[in-house]
Protein 1
Amino acid sequence: MSIIIFAFSIFCGWLIFDVVKHRKLNIKMILSSFVISVIAGVAWWLLDLIL
C-alpha cells in the first residue's frame, strides 16, 4: 500500500511542478508525470524487496 501512496504523491508533485513551471496543463505533462510515478513506484518496490 505504501508503494501506491508513494507513486501517487510523486505523480501529484511532478504534475504540480510542471504546471507551475510551464503555466499550463496538457496531456503530455500528465503522461510524463504518470511515467515518472510508475518508475518511482517500481524503484520503491525493488528497494523494499532488497532491503
Protein 2
Amino acid sequence: METLRHIVLFIHLIGFATLFGAWAVEAFGGKRRITSLMHIGVTIAAVAGLALAAPWGLAEGVELNYAKVGTKLVIVLVIGALLGIGQGRQRKTGAVPPAMFWGIGILTLVNAGIAVLW
C-alpha cells in the first residue's frame, strides 16, 4: 500500500511540474497566456492531492496534517479559479491580466513549497 501511495505522490508532483513548466514556458517565452497544459497540470495535481489526503496506506499511528492539506487545497482551488478566469479574459480581450498570470506562477511555487517545507 505504501508503494501505491508513493506512486500517487509522484503523479501529484508531475501535475505541479506540468503546471509550473507550462507557466514558465509562457512567462519566459514572452506570450504570457494560459494554455490547456496548465489546466491539465492543475487537474492532475488536484486529483492526486485529494487521493493523498485520504487516510489510506499510512503506517500505524501516523496522522495526516489536516492544516497543511486544507491550505494546499485552498491554494489549488485559487489556482484553478485564476486559470479559469484568466482563460475567459484571454478569450474576450486576447490577453491575461499580468497580476493574474504572475499569481498563478507564484501560487504554484507556494503550493510546492508548502508540500516540501511544512
Protein 3
Amino acid sequence: MIILIDPYTEERLAKSLAGRPGFFKLFYDTENCGCNGVLAIEIIEQPLETDIKITVKTFTFLVDKQQESLFDKVLKLEADRAYPSFKVTSDSALYSTNVRIKDVRDIANT
C-alpha cells in the first residue's frame, strides 16, 4: 500500500505528533457504530503484531492486515485547509472527507 501526501498535509501530520514519537493507524472504527465503520486515524505508541507498516516520508502509517483489503493500493491523504480534518481518496474511491486524527498515546498509560 502507498499513501501519498502533499507538503501541507505533511506539515499538519508533523504538528499532530507534537514532537513526540508515534504511529498513524488508519482503520475503520466500528465501536459504538451501527454501520460498517467510520474511517479514523489514531496516533498510537506501538504497532500491534497484526499491523502492516507503510512509510510515508518521515511518518509511519499502520493498517491492520485484516483491514488492508478495504483500501485501494494507492491512497491520497489530504489535509483540509479550512477545517482540522483530512480527506482520504484513491483514483476510484472517496473514503471520507472528514477524518480526524485522535492522539491516544497517553490514554493507554492512564
Protein 4
Amino acid sequence: MRHIAFVVQDPKKMADFYTSRFGMELFHTDPDGSHFVTDGYVNLALIQQRLDGDVPAGFNHFGFHVESVEPYLDTLQPRPALRGGDRPFAEYRAIDPEGNWFDLSAHGFLPPGVA
C-alpha cells in the first residue's frame, strides 16, 4: 500500500499540519486546491471537498503500487475500471467486497517527473 486519500475542507491547512508535524513533503497541488504530501514511501492525498459534490469529508480510498496492473484485471470482481481524465496518478480504480475504493498503479502515486 503506497497511497491513502482523504476528502478535506482545507487541504492547505491539512498539508501544513502533516509537513510541519511529521516531516512530510508537499510534492503536488492540483488546480482545485487538493494537496499531495509524502514521507518518501506513502503518498497522502488531501482532496478538496466540493460543496456541489456528493463526496463527504473523510476517508476516500487507498492505493496499491503493483508491478503490472494486467494480472488483476481478470481476477478482481467487479473488474477494475480505467480511470479517465487527466489523473496523473493511478491508472485503475477497483472496489473490495465491502465497497471500499482502491487504486491500482504500475507507475506509482507521484506525478510524472517526480521521483
